[in-house]
Amino acid sequence: MADKLSFNLVSPEKQLLSEDVDQVDVPGADGIFGVLPNHAPFMSTLAPGVVHVRNGGDENRIFVRGGFADVTPAGLTILAEEAIFVADLDAQEIARRIKDCEEDLSDSDTQPATLARAQAELAQLKELQAAL
Asked: Using one digit for the tens of pLDDT, what is the confidence trace for 33-63?
């Protein structure tokens, strides 16, 4: 049997994945990197993007924002600030929320704190939309 990579993906809400896989491609702060079994140990911060988990002919795609990837002799662990399976994303809902945020930003009566929240939410929603 071929070597497998022990992979764990954890967000603050729950553990999303814990399985032995063939390969994981991770959006690191310095670019996307692939992790295979017996990879050299290292740590990286995460950039917003999609983690591709490959096992046999199957592939899971998970959008992550913020966090760390830690490769050790035991495997790969991703601690993500936010993690969502791409299959669970609703393109129409994301587009509607983007439109709402853009309207909030164009409203001249909006308070500075509300504007800042709308800008942050808009950036996050556009990251999700790009993942689709």
From this structure: 999 999 999 999 999 889 999 999 999 999 9
For residue 21, the SS3 value is strand
Pairing of strands 75-85, 5-10: parallel
User: Distance from CA of residue 86 to its chain's centroid?
Assistant: 9
CATH code 3.60.15.10 for 5-87: no
Distances from the Cα of 31 to the Cαs of 1, 34, 47, 109, 125, in angstroms? 31, 10, 8, 40, 21
Residue spans of the domains in the chain: they are: 5-87, 90-131
pTM exceeding 0.85: no
Pairing of strands 42-45, 75-85: unpaired
